Each structure stands twice: as structure tokens, then as C-alpha cells.
Amino acid sequence: MNIFTRAEFLLNITRSQGIARRYFVVNGFDGALTMLGMILGFQFSASTPLSITINACLGASIALGVSGVSSAYISELAERRRALLKLEEAMLEDLHESAHSEAARWVPIMIALVNGSAPLLISLVILSPLLLTHAGVVLPISPLFLAIILALIIVFLLGVFLGRIAGTSWLRSGVQTLFIAITTSVLIFLFTSN
């Protein structure tokens, strides 16, 4: 059994696929909105050197990633240990050498990696126009404006993903999440522009 098949098996016996999917969307959404907010803040502020904008956004991205990994690992480890203990009590048997015990050790790590990588990777995609410009690549439009467009597209795609999972209208779900991002943008404009 290769590592991916084994991981899928462990997720199946703990019924954790939905948890991992939910963490991916929730923290991915957090990452996209956080980057959108930070970039809009820089866009509406006085001119800021690109390197400062990149460092601030990268700092927030890394913090979101570390927070996602650590918080999910701690909470999922506690939940998996509790579930294993209850299963042992119900079966009146020590399950330390079982697949359930292996799942109690590895599922929290898998979910933590999903939870932490989602905001980090999404943030890096949104920041890519800034990073490219900093590396000397000339873009046809402002890197901040392009990053804002990317953030809105990603938020819309996360909504589409949720719509497909729920079996509802992907377009309606995408528009709903896009509406949240636009409302966030309007609030940021109202509170940060002078």
C-alpha cells in the first residue's frame, strides 16, 4: 500500500475527509481575505515601497500557515485520542497496534498540513504579481491591482468548490463568496481611505 493509499485509508476509517475539506476552504478563505485586506490597505494608503508591502504580506502568510498547522494539530490530536479511547472502551480491547491507533497519530498531521498549507499557498498565489514585479518582471498592470483581481478570483473559486460539494448551484455559491469579498473591500475602503 503506497503512502497516498494508506493516507486515504486512514482518513476513511476516521471519516475525516470532510474535516480536511472544511479546513481547506475555511483557512483558504481566511488567507485570501487577509491578503485582499492587506493589499487593499496598501493600495489605499500613501505610496509604500514594494519590498515593505511584500514583507508585510509574507509575514501575514507565514503566520496564517503556522497558525493553521499548530491549531489544527492540537485540536485534531485531542479529538482523535478521545475517539480512540471511546472505541477501546466500547470494544473492551487495547487498540494500540491497530489501524485506528495509527490513524489517531497520522490523521491530525494530515489535517494540520491541509489547514496550514491552504492559506499559505493561496496567499502566495495572490502575492505572485508583487513577487514577479520585485524580481524585475514587467506586468501590464499594477501588481497591487493584479493581486486584488487574483484574490477575488480565488474567493469566487472557493465558493464554486463549496457549491459543488453541497450539490447546489456553483454559480450562486461563487457569487455569494465574491459578495463577501466585495463587502470586505468596501469596508476596508471606508475605514482606511482618507
TrEMBL record:
<keyword id="KW-0472">Membrane</keyword>
<keyword id="KW-0812">Transmembrane</keyword>
<protein>
    <recommendedName>
        <fullName>Integral membrane protein</fullName>
    </recommendedName>
</protein>
<keyword id="KW-1133">Transmembrane helix</keyword>
<feature type="transmembrane region" description="Helical">
    <location>
        <begin position="106"/>
        <end position="132"/>
    </location>
</feature>
<feature type="transmembrane region" description="Helical">
    <location>
        <begin position="24"/>
        <end position="46"/>
    </location>
</feature>
<feature type="transmembrane region" description="Helical">
    <location>
        <begin position="144"/>
        <end position="163"/>
    </location>
</feature>
<feature type="transmembrane region" description="Helical">
    <location>
        <begin position="175"/>
        <end position="192"/>
    </location>
</feature>
<feature type="transmembrane region" description="Helical">
    <location>
        <begin position="52"/>
        <end position="74"/>
    </location>
</feature>
